[in-house]
């Protein structure tokens, strides 16, 4: 028996080594292609803050409504980048983009390959709809609708669709995706943040920012770079149409409208050509003197958690509001990746009970996630984008994040955080053995 177990262990180790070698070889080939054919064409992102008019958008009604309104007003071009894209809202976007295309508007859709994976994994749409109808009749409606992807439909109807190539990102994890969520219209206006345009994610608590002005140039460059970051051998063809004069005019128009305010921001990215979000985030946390608020779906990156701990030890008031992972990927993960943050706070409090650091779970509705990816530093800097504060997001995905300074836009999101903290925040369960095990392996699982 012992001999059999020894041989079994050797076989498992051998298979694991073969898999690692395969991934390493594939990774090297990806990087070689990227360095030779792609890297030299990537356009740079500005280092200095860029001005904008900005408006906070919270949850599906505001986000979906404003997104459709932006597309409806397009005259020249729409750039639409999305991680999950499906369901009825996907149909609405496709119908509108087809209408704009007939009017002569150029359409560029950059959709994650994850949409294809979902399509292969899920049943046909009609079967899913029948199941939902049966459940509704029985009085047990599904808490979270099945994902109904629309990427294939967009392609079949003639929209210009590409998949970003995350294989160019050097990372140990084989699962790499374009996780960005962004819409850019006519080179003058855009929206970005955490919300996917799909029915599956519609009930999530989420947020985005709608912007107009010179900051849009940075978003366009990011989209154009990702659009061209593929391995088809074609030369880099910039699709940016940014017009500074028109962007500034639109910015001034928006500043006259309710909900908009003047601010400036720096774009940060996780991508093959620029991987600076985690660096900038930790710099901001290390420079904090008064307060840090974090509202996040996933918070398990070790370097980021250490920076938050350092801030608390300096006397900075740190509040962490995280998803309880009850409905993450259709499963209850018992705190999931955020157990790591809970454990960090528990340990700090044991050693230094006086430290001003707290962690709470967001009280989710059935089938809901706290999907926001946000931080606020010293009541003056807003961090917002598609980036979870997780090792996977910082190392393996295409991600987009921005640090924005402006009294009103920061105040808008700080008010959202305070409401969420006071009305939806609940004590995070203390870590038992099971939650500790999930915490230990969270970097691999999530």
What can be said about this structure in brief?
By secondary structure, the protein is α/β, with parallel strands linked by helices. Helix content is 43%, strand content 20%.
Explain the overall architecture:
- This protein folds into 2 domains: 51-259, Endonuclease Chain A (Endonuclease, Chain A, 2-Layer Sandwich), CATH 3.30.870; 277-445, 2-Layer Sandwich (Endonuclease, Chain A).
- With 446 residues, it is an alpha/beta fold.
- Helix 10 (302-313) links the parallel strand 11 and strand 12 (317-322).
- The longest helix has 37 residues, at 2-38.
- The chain has 15 helices and 17 strands.
List keywords for this structure.
446 residues; 20% strand; 17 strands; 15-stranded mixed β-sheet; alpha/beta; 2 domains; Endonuclease, Chain A; 43% helix
List the helices and strands and how they pair.
Elements: H1 2-38, E1 50-58, H2 59-72, E2 77-82, E3 85-86, H3 87-102, E4 106-111, H4 114-121, H5 125-137, H6 151-156, E5 161-162, E6 182-185, E7 189-193, E8 197-198, E9 207-212, H7 215-228, H8 244-255, E10 261-270, H9 277-287, E11 291-296, H10 302-313, E12 317-322, H11 339-351, E13 357-362, E14 373-377, E15 381-385, H12 391-396, E16 399-405, H13 407-423, E17 425-427, H14 433-440, H15 442-445
Parallel strand pairs: 2-4, 3-8, 4-5, 11-12, 12-13
Antiparallel strand pairs: 1-9, 1-10, 2-6, 6-7, 7-9, 10-16, 11-14, 13-17, 14-15, 15-16
Helix pairs in contact: 2-3, 9-10
């Amino acid at each position: 028996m012992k001999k059999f177990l020894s041989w079994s262990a050797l076989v498992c180790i051998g298979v694991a080594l073969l898999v690692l070698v395969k991934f390493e070889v594939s990774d090297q080939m990806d990087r070689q292609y990227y360095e030779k054919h792609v890297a030299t064409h990537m356009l740079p992102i500005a280092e200095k803050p860029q001005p904008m008019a900005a408006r906070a958008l919270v949850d599906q009604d505001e986000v979906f409504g404003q997104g459709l309104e932006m597309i409806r007003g397009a005259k020249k071009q729409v750039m639409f980048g999305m991680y999950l894209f499906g369901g009825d809202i996907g149909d609405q976007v496709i119908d509108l983009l087809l209408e704009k295309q007939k009017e002569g508007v150029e359409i560029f859709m950059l959709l994650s390959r994850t949409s294809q994976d979902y399509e292969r994994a899920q049943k046909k749409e009609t079967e899913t709809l029948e199941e939902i109808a049966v459940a509704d009749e029985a009085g047990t409606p599904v808490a979270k609708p099945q994902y109904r992807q629309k990427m294939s439909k967009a392609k079949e109807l003639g929209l210009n669709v590409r998949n970003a190539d995350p294989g160019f990102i050097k990372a140990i994890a084989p699962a790499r995706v374009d996780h960005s969520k962004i819409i850019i219209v006519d080179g003058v206006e855009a929206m970005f943040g955490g919300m996917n345009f799909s029915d599956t994610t519609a009930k999530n608590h989420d947020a985005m920012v709608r912007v107009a002005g010179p900051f849009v140039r940075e978003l366009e460059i990011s989209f154009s770079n990702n659009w061209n970051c593929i391995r088809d051998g074609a030369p880099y063809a910039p699709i940016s149409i940014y017009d500074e004069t028109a962007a500034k005019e639109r910015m001034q128009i928006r500043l006259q409208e309710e909900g908009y305010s003047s601010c400036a921001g720096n774009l940060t990215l996780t991508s093959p050509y620029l991987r600076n979000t985690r660096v900038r985030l930790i710099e901001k946390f290390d420079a904090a003197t008064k307060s840090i608020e974090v509202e996040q779906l996933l918070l398990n990156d070790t370097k980021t958690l250490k920076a938050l701990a350092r801030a608390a030890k300096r006397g900075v008031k740190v509040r962490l509001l995280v998803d309880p992972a009850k409905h993450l990927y259709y499963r209850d993960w018992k705190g999931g990746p955020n157990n790591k943050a809970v454990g960090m706070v528990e340990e700090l409090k044991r050693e230094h009970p006086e430290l001003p650091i707290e962690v709470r779970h967001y009280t989710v509705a059935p089938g809901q996630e706290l999907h926001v990816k946000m931080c606020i530093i010293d009541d003056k800097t807003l961090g917002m984008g598609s980036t979870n504060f997780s090792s996977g997001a910082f190392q393996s995905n295409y991600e987009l994040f921005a640090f924005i300074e402006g009294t009103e836009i920061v105040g808008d999101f700080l008010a959202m955080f305070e409401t969420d903290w006071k009305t939806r925040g609940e004590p995070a369960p203390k870590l038992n053995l099971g939650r500790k095990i999930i915490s230990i392996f969270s970097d691999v699982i999530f």
